[in-house]
Write a structure and sequence with these properties.
The protein is an alpha/beta fold and 311 residues long. It has one domain: TIM Barrel, CATH 3.20.20.150. Helices cover 41% and strands 18% of the residues. The longest helix is centred in the C-terminal third of the chain and has 23 residues. The radius of gyration is 18 Å and the shape is globular. The chain starts with 7 loop residues before the first helix and ends with a helix.
Length: 311
């Protein structure tokens, strides 16, 4: 099922289950199989990033998502505020209280923030600060990703092992997504996540990026890492009539098959729409056009989830 509201305590409990046992990788995989076999529907949280509204002020993004029927939001990176200057949603060095205040504004509009962008895994100090901001805001996930030109898995493992306990102590999960390079598939990411073996570090699956950067079908790929997935960065992709990313349901990815491996985990799982735009045609230049596409993406995912979880 999908949720319009969530008890905060329950959310933190799901995101911070402690690691136990000496045979760590085996225990992790066993726990994932148990969750997947629980038969309890995943509580999908259909969210939209503010990213599609980057050309407009943040508050216009939030009110637009409210109008489009969302109950969950993921903070993007920058928005053009007064004068058209790109302004960070939340600066990396902003005090945690500033994150708390922004979250309060979101909740005042009926939008529960569930994810925020973070720096790359190579910058553990900045990621730790982002964790503290997320904790103050009551946000459960901090998103990170690699470089399209390639990354050093050993550095990632070292930094994630340091950051995982910090994240858990703050009720936050670091989620890393595919972004091209040598960490650009679920199969590659899951090896890193399993070596880290910490419930504070998991995967946010980005099927559009897998198809875009690597030209491979994400459906077999997600089955290789489904047990470690805790959220999705939702975007679709087409290779015809133009090779480009697009909104869910506009591309070639079957979202029924994409979400099926995680449809009955019993977990809370954000689905954060990153790209909502139609392929080929020009993107809207007015915020009302973006509102309409955001609503369409939410309605599409609602139908997919209902179809997957109806028994």
């Amino acid at each position: 099922m999908f949720t319009r509201g969530i008890d905060r305590r329950r959310f933190l409990q799901v995101g911070t289950v402690a690691c136990m046992g000496l045979a760590a990788p085996a225990v992790a995989r066993s726990g994932d199989r148990a969750a997947a076999a629980s038969g309890k529907p995943t509580q999908f949280q259909i969210a939209c990033m503010t990213l599609p509204y980057a050309a407009f002020p943040l508050m216009r993004a939030l009110t637009g998502l409210q109008t489009a029927g969302y109950r969950f939001v993921a903070w993007g990176t920058n928005h053009k505020e007064n004068g058209g200057k790109p302004t960070p949603v939340l600066a990396g060095d902003a005090p945690p209280d500033q994150a708390k205040e922004l979250a309060k504004r979101c909740r005042g509009l009926g939008l529960e923030p569930v994810m925020m962008f973070g720096p790359p895994p190579e910058n553990p100090e900045a990621l730790e600060q982002r964790i503290r901001q997320a904790a103050a805001a009551g946000i459960g996930q901090v998103l990170t990703m690699g470089n399209t030109k390639g990354n050093d898995p050993k550095v990632w493992v070292r930094n994630f092992k340091e950051l995982g306990p910090i994240a858990r102590d703050h009720g936050v999960t670091i989620v890393v997504k595919q972004h091209g390079g040598n960490t650009g598939t679920g199969a590659e990411l899951v090896e890193i996540i399993r070596e880290v073996h910490d419930d504070g570090v998991k995967i946010s699956y980005d099927a559009g990026n897998v198809m875009d950067y690597h030209k491979i079908d994400p459906l077999p790929d997600i089955r290789k890492c489904a047990g470690e997935v805790r959220s999705f960065c939702i975007k679709d992709h087409r290779q015809f009539p133009r090779d480009e990313d697009c909104g869910p349901g506009f591309g070639e990815i079957d979202h029924y098959k994409l979400l099926a491996p995680v449809a009955f985990t019993g977990r809370v799982m954000p689905l954060c729409c990153e790209n909502i735009f139609a392929p080929v045609v020009p993107r809207p230049t007015d915020p009302e056009g973006i509102d309409a596409l955001a609503k369409r993406a939410r309605e599409f995912l609602t139908v997919v989830i209902a179809g997957l979880q109806t028994r």
